[in-house]
Amino acid sequence: MRVLINAISAKMGGASNYLKEIAIQLASRNSRDEFVFLLPPERIPAIQSLFPGAEVIGSNQAGAGVLARLWFDQITLRRMIREKRIDCLFSSADFGMLKAPCRQVLLVRNSVYFFAMYLEQYGGRRPWKARLSDRFRRWLVCRSVTSADFVMTPSRAMLDELCRWVTVPETKGFANYYGVSHSRFSPRKFQEQKSGPWNLLFVSLYTDHKNLGTLLRGLEVLTRRGEDVHLSTTADPHWPAARITQSWVEDARLADSPLIRERVHFVLTDAAAAPKNLYAACDIFVYPSVVESFGHALAEAMSSGLPIIAADVATNRELCGSAALYFSPFDPGELAARVQSVIADPVLRRRLGEAALTRSRLFRWEQHVDVLLGCLKGEMSRFNNVVDKGEEALIAAK
User: Fold this and answer.
1) pLDDT single digits (tens) 111-122
2) For residues 115 and 165, what is the distance between their CA atoms, to the nearest angstrom?
């Protein structure tokens, strides 16, 4: 079987990390199947080093306009499939080929096109050209879903939101959780008593729906209440690329305010590959993001055995279950109260940390790639609801 993996959008963040993990898993299997990666030129060295046996082709189409990307996906890529005698196409980032000449598996992962909370809270604030582009892209994703043989999403919450816009039959659409590289993270030793400041951590790229402002306001509340709390985060509103967002000016003002500026520490690192020492150095992981298709950082925090406090939205609850405390997404006072409850109660901290470690076993790249390969071979029925069965087995093993 010859498989073409279309990953031309994997320039940074979660898409880049996903591509890396897929390459690692495929290389480890010593399969007779052949894989061709189509990706941004800057990602070629990394993928070649991880998967020397793969064919790698560079493309800058991710930076092209919508119409140029449409031409590439529908015309240029179709020609490439014929020339390279491809048997299966894996479209790994939302946009697929309409009426593909081979079996096609589509991964829909961009939550901002579909989640009601994003459209209600942030969509209307975007410039009209951006809103028009979003509508066209959403339409194109929906057409891609209709044309694909199988449709994967990283969570059930993402699939539910997608189904608000397009019909996805149960025979072709399903959730397939991403994994976490468990070997990168070591559970932190539990401390019943702690001296010094409490260290909060939030790992993410900066954008509007990551909801950093609520976390910063929560830190202000904690400071006024006399709590010795510091925040480390990779979500920096001063980041040059943040200038396209609607919230960066206000969030930068909050971060620089005299009350908390000495307590906020922006960490210069790739949020998709946050080093394990970031997690090891923190006491509580706080996740204010309100729109996610998965949430890699949540899985990493669970693998690190950290107590988690997360915004009360469907994806966060699906991933964390009882391994987190939740707060109303835009209520900094409730966020602060959850932090205080974890600080004050060592029994609660231990329970959340242990539950997180157990829960993290749900997220395995090996399982994700097993399901992907099954779909590429036309065997989706073997893996249908594999995530649900995995969770049932985990609960039964407790």
Assistant:
1) 999 999 999 999
2) 10
* pTM summary value: 0.90
Edge to edge, the sheet with strand 229-233 lists 264-266, 229-233, 198-202, 284-287, 308-311, 324-327
Strand order in the sheet with 34-39: 55-58, 34-39, 2-6, 88-91, 103-107, 150-153, 173-175
Least Cα distance to 92 among 109, 68, 73, 75 occurs for 109
Q: Which of 27-31, 49-53, 188-192, 246-250 has the lowest mean pLDDT?
A: 188-192
Spatial distance between the Cα atoms of 199 and 285, rounded to a whole number of angstroms: 9
The DSSP result for 225-253, as a single string, is TT--EEEEES--TTSGGGGGSSSHHHHHH
- Show the domains of the chain with their CATH numbers: 2-179+364-397 (3.40.50.2000), 182-360 (3.40.50.2000)
Q: Which phi and psi (to 5°) does residue 318 adopt? A: -60, -45
Question: Which amino acid, 318?
Answer: E
Tens-place pLDDT, residues 164-184:
999 999 989 999 999 998 888
Where does residue 46 rank: exposed (0-12), middle (13-18), buried (19+ CB within 10 A)? Answer: middle
